Amino acid sequence: MPKKILIQLDCDPQPSTFDAVVAVDAGTDVLLRHGGVTVENVVSLVHGGMFTRGGADLASTAIFIGGSDVAVAEAVAARVRSTFFGPVRLGVLVDPSGANTTAAAAVVAAGRHVPLVPDAAAVCRAVVLGGTGPVGQRVARLLAGKGAHVAIASRSWERAEHVVRGIVEATGLPAARFEAIEHHGAYRAESAFARVIAAADVIVAAGAAGATLLDTAGRRAAVTARVLIDLNAVPPAGIEGLAAGDKARTDGGAVVYGAVGVGGTKMKIHRAAIGRIFTANDAFLDAEDLLAIGERLEAAG
Ligand SMILES: NC(=O)c1ccc[n+]([C@@H]2O[C@H](COP(=O)([O-])OP(=O)(O)OC[C@H]3O[C@@H](n4cnc5c(N)ncnc54)[C@H](OP(=O)(O)O)[C@@H]3O)[C@@H](O)[C@H]2O)c1
Question: pTM here?
Answer without folding.
Answer: 0.97
